[in-house]
């Protein structure tokens, strides 16, 4: 890892804590797709910082190219976080936006994704888009680990520029997989429910 990566994770821990709570699994070196609620631009850094160093080396956040693809943001995403950038604008209508994720999973690497597709303002996630389902279909051996980011919707809410220092936790749940003959709709709702379950009694 680059020295700048350590500085980034250190800053995240200083500002928002990013304290890991492994509630349903242990931090193991198995291929995983971590999927979480999405309320701020610091979500990616918080989850990555919560992972042990040995897992950060093989885990890649998925980030939107239209936001993270230029200037300083591009350096943070590609050099410090080693993120996989996806084209949400579908500039090439014939291209599969999941192709970069699929290639990374084929290499045996792990991913961090936000199935809502865009940031929300609620403490609980909105409806999940289909990307997680398609990845689960193509990579049935990858563990799907739900993650809940507590308090980040207050630390850096949508529209804010600088984070408000506060204690945030990153809760990792029990791995799940696509069940035999499970429909896309049923799977996505079940995955969303697993993230909400990690939220406990938090209010939307």
TrEMBL record:
Q: Which UniProt keywords apply?
A: Acyltransferase, Transferase
**Looking at the keywords, is Protein biosynthesis present?**
no
| Phospholipid/glycerol acyltransferase domain span | 32-152
Q: Which SMART domains match?
A: PlsC (SM00563)
Q: Which InterPro entries match?
A: Plipid/glycerol_acylTrfase (IPR002123)
GO MF term set: acyltransferase activity
Q: Does the keyword Methyltransferase apply?
A: no
Query: At the top level of its lineage, which domain of life is listed?
Result: Bacteria
List the pathway annotation.
Lipid metabolism
Q: Which PANTHER family match?
A: 1-ACYL-SN-GLYCEROL-3-PHOSPHATE ACYLTRANSFERASE
Official protein name in the record? Lysophospholipid acyltransferase family protein
- Source organism per UniProt: Steroidobacter flavus
Q: Lineage of this protein's species?
A: Bacteria, Pseudomonadati, Pseudomonadota, Gammaproteobacteria, Steroidobacterales
